[in-house]
Amino acid sequence: MTAADIDFDVLKVDEGILVFEDNPEIVDDSWKKSDRMITGILENIFKLWLKVHPDDPDGAVFTNPAPDCTKFNLLLYRTNSISEGLSIAFTVKYENETYYMCCTEDMKLYFKKGECPSLIKGDHSDIIFFQKQFSAGDSSFRFQSSLNTDYYLAVSDKSGKPKLVLQKYNGFSEMERFNVV
After folding, report:
1. Is residue 58 part of a domain?
2. With 50 as the cut, is the pLDDT of residue 37 above it?
3. Could you say which residues form the signal peptide (predicted)?
């Protein structure tokens, strides 16, 4: 890890001690969009891939792997607050338009047309999720909502088809396990 990775700049070395300067572009309790991102397809525990339809009430459903499945950009956001994982926002291209994933106060997911904001003030956001390792030694991830940290992205098939939802944390659940392929 370098100083650039943790958003500090080395100001000088003074008597053998590194002196750091805060990154002035980041203010307390905010996120700033990084130029780094992870691109891939979101795969659930059943090896199904997520396909997004922003104009459909279901929003995002899991289907068998196919060439037309949705590639996500997981945009990294920098923060100077302590977080429990990487701060990311999900964006997709759908019919040549960019959409980003949001959640509501009642923990429903939807996709909003447009670009993610460059700066998000506060320590809760409807678009920021904390990407965490699912379990030690595992290459899978869990995604925790920053709006309500009791909720995680999960797979639900209550409607007869597996779709992406926010689910209240009730211990580790395989339904919250995702790979980025």
Report:
1. yes
2. yes
3. none
